Amino acid sequence: MLEPTHNIELPPIPAKRYFTIGEVGELCGVKPHVLRYWEQEFSQLKPVKRRGNRRYYQRHDVMMIRQIRSLLYEQGFTIGGARQKLEGDGEAEDTKKNHSVIQQMRIELEEIAQLLKR
Question: Taken in order 105, 111, 117, 118, is the CA torsion positive or negative?
Fold first, then answer.
């Protein structure tokens, strides 16, 4: 059974170029040690590493983490199953990804429009 904390609504992704591991953890509802583990398990997840091996995630990384989180916590996939799903899906999955990216962008643009109206 899923923990109640896994069923939370995730906050919108701010308009930034890079995010720290702590920020990504808050945006995705996942602890930093889990993110580091997922980096080893999912080849698609490769944050930029800078001074002292500090990780900096970009928007596409955050979207990928949210997708991985959804597969594991909400859809009940195992790590191996989620890895296969991410690697093996064709155009139908790309359409879903594009749709979710468009939805996220729409939400963020509406927030920006609200700010500009003030």
Answer: negative
Pure H helices in the chain: 21-28, 32-41, 59-69, 79-88, 91-117
Which domains can be identified in the chain, with CATH numbers? 4-117 (1.10.1660.10)
d(CA 40, CA 1): 25
User: Dihedral sign, CA of 25, 29, 31, 37?
Assistant: negative
Instruction: State in Å, rounded, how far the first CA of the chain is from the last one.
Output: 44
pLDDT digits (tens, 9 = 90+) for 34-47: 999 999 999 889 99
| pTM to 2 decimal places | 0.68
Q: Where on the phi/psi map is residue 39: left (φ > 0), alpha (ψ -120 to 50), or beta? A: alpha
97 CB-contact burial (10 Å; exposed 0-12 / middle 13-18 / buried 19+): middle
